[in-house]
Structure to design on (552 residues):
């Protein structure tokens, strides 16, 4: 096979920032060599995987959650405040989402040049059969990743160029955008074509995690169709779109592979390599580097080496129900007095609160967190303004001790089973209501929702109508907190106004003598144009066929 020579695209092109996949032929590195040997192919595939997102360090430490009502960043110089204060623009963009086109370019290049017959001709490895088994699914992994990156672009920008081949330099800046619906249709078609070509679990197949599987493909399809059915992209409320979303989530459930353990026993919450043994994990961004940056940027100020960071809000804490399933109520004196624990120290709230939030009196690294007025971990630059610090994703084994520093891996879940069940509950409700289960479907919307709550030993939801929908949305908010969902859910639901008023808690006194007051700590700006991201202005200059999103 003659390797196609036209795949190289000059870096000045609007889709290319780096040329990491170009080869230096002066050193004997050619595309022919790259596509003729397994080790080289594996490096190309790994490069496409390297674009997978993580929200642990997206904006100089700030998570996208800190541009929602779930959290605020403790340092107001961070660029995340460009969103909160509505001072971002096509010139001053947030997040490097447009760079996913670089990943797509690399994916297209691989798909156009990979040929298993060439590999068979040139590869002479002792593990030849094993290598061929692995290599033959590379194209399906790459197609999944390309579909994933298309979704990441579409959820940000709406209409985008749908580039499913490589382009010559003279034509790349003339491409026209496809509609959001067309992009979703392509993603769905790709998922349908490749799902059965990938193994259910690479741990069974090649002893690895963090690679595309059938479950990951179906979970992507579920998420994509859920977004397509949501108010932002479904103004008419077309129930057919909700049916497709419910069906896609049902396909993941039908695999029978994933289960939800009790939240207190789920390795997902332990972080590090323990995450891989969670029976609900579907797909994750793996990070093999042992670092302490995330802990340094989020441990309570006053701890050695800490810098403050993403701090949960009272808005989020209020969303966690009392242990008996009743909604937390500031007008209920018993609720307020037993905000986190009762007089005997027993937890009073949904157990997921304690897996997400460090509150006044919580223990972290064998030390009590003090966010009360005059406490050890408040009142200084970088300290929490909300009265809380982040617990989720934090690894207790990390040490910030300058004498004995210790870093750990920080993997990031991209798809998990709880999300699929919540996708199903939301879609099924909009299609059939809370308590109807069509033939061939596994659950009613209510049953799926309560499966998630069962894992936290929380009381089943009995509400109906719009109150049920609010429970679905609230469950999604707390179950998937700090996993890069809230920012996007607010947008697809067209509920941007909820981010405006950010509350914290003011705690005076200590122990049983503490008093609690809900206080306004920040006010974010909202404009409906923010439902979509602005297309970077430099891209509009280079391609007159691109159109800026409304309001920008």
């Amino acid at each position: 096979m003659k390797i196609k020579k036209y795949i190289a695209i000059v870096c000045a092109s609007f889709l290319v920032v780096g040329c990491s996949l170009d080869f230096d032929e002066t050193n004997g590195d050619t595309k022919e060599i790259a596509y003729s040997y397994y080790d080289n192919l594996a490096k190309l595939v790994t490069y496409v995987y390297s674009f997978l997102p993580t929200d642990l360090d997206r904006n100089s430490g700030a998570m996208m959650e800190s541009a929602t009502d779930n959290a605020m960043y403790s340092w107001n110089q961070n660029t995340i405040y460009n969103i909160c204060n509505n001072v971002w623009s096509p010139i001053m963009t947030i997040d490097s989402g447009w760079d996913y086109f670089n990943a797509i370019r690399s994916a297209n290049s691989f798909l156009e040049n990979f040929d298993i017959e060439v590999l068979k001709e040139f590869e002479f490895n002792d593990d030849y059969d094993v290598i061929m088994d692995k290599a033959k699914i590379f194209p399906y992994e790459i197609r999944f990743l390309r579909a994933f990156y298309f979704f990441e672009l579409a959820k940000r920008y709406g209409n985008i160029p749908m580039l499913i081949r490589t382009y010559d330099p003279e034509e790349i800046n003339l491409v026209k955008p496809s509609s959001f619906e067309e992009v979703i249709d392509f993603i769905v078609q790709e998922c349908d074509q490749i799902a059965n070509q990938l193994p259910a679990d690479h741990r069974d197949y090649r002893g690895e995690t963090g690679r595309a599987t059938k479950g990951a493909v179906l979970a992507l399809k579920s998420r994509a169709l859920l977004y397509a059915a949501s108010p932002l992209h479904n103004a008419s409320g077309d129930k057919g779109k909700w049916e497709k979303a419910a069906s896609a989530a049902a396909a993941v459930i039908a695999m029978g592979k994933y289960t939800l353990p009790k939240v207190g026993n789920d390795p997902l919450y332990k972080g590090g390599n323990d995450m891989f043994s969670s029976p609900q994990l579907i797909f994750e961004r793996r990070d093999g580097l042992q670092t302490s940056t995330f802990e340094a940027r989020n441990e309570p100020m006053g701890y050695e080496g800490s810098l403050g960071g993403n701090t949960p809000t009272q808005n989020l804490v209020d969303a966690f129900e009392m242990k008996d399933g009743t909604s937390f109520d500031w007008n209920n004196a018993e609720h307020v007095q037993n905000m986190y624990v009762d007089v005997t120290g027993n937890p009073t709230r949904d157990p997921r609160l304690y897996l997400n939030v460090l509150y006044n009196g919580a223990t972290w690294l064998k030390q009590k967190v003090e966010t009360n007025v005059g406490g050890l971990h408040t009142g200084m630059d970088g300290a929490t303004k909300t009265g809380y610090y982040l617990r989720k994703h934090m690894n207790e084994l990390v040490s910030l001790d300058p004498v004995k520093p210790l870093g750990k891996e920080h993997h990031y879940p991209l798809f998990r089973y709880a999300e699929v069940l919540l996708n199903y509950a939301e879609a099924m409700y909009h299609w059939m209501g809370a308590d109807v289960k069509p033939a061939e479907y596994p659950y009613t919307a209510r049953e799926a929702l309560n499966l998630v709550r069962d894992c936290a030993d929380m009381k089943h939801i009995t509400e109906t109508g719009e109150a049920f929908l609010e429970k679905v949305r609230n469950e999604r908010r707390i179950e998937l907190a700090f996993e890069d969902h809230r920012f996007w859910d607010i947008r697809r639901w067209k509920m941007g106004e909820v981010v405006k008023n950010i509350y914290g808690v003011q705690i005076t006194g200590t122990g049983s003598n503490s008093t609690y007051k809900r206080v306004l700590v920040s006010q974010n700006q909202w404009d409906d144009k923010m439902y979509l991201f602005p297309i970077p202005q430099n891209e509009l200059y280079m391609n007159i066929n691109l159109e800026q999103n409304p309001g920008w």
In short: The two ends are 48 Å apart (CA to CA).
